[in-house]
Amino acid sequence: MALRNADEARATEAESLRVIEVTFGPETSREIDNAIKVLRGTIEIAITDFSNAISAHGALDMSQLEAIQNMSAVH
């Protein structure tokens, strides 16, 4: 289910970027693409920090932490 949702999100993102490029030009498309990359990086850092904080308290085991990190990779 998560993989299917990730594939759908990627397809929607790609189509949206194509529409933006046609409507507003390639420069706007690049700026949005860069903003998305920054946002993804920020989310990954936040999830890693959260995972590290939780694991320090022993609330989650490694498989649960990996699942959280994998979820961030698909978004």
Radius of gyration: 16 Å
Bin the helical content.
over 70%
Major pleated sheet: none
Query: Which regions contain 5 or more consecutive residues with pLDDT less than 50?
Result: none
Number of DSSP E strands: 0
Let me know the average pLDDT.
83
Query: What form results from the Cα inertia axes?
Result: elongated
Number of helical runs?
3
Assembly type of the chains comes to single chain
SSE succession: HHH
Give the N-terminus to C-terminus distance in angstroms. 13 Å
Portion in beta strands: under 5%
List the helices and strands and how they pair.
Elements: H1 2-24, H2 26-56, H3 62-74
Helix pairs in contact: 1-2, 2-3
Report on this model:
Helix content is 89%, strand content 0%. It contains three helices and no strands. The protein is elongated and about 50 Å long. The relative contact order is 0.12.
In short:
The protein is mainly α and 75 residues long. The chain has helices at 2-24, 26-56, 62-74. It has one domain (2-74).
Characteristic terms for this protein:
mainly alpha, 75 residues
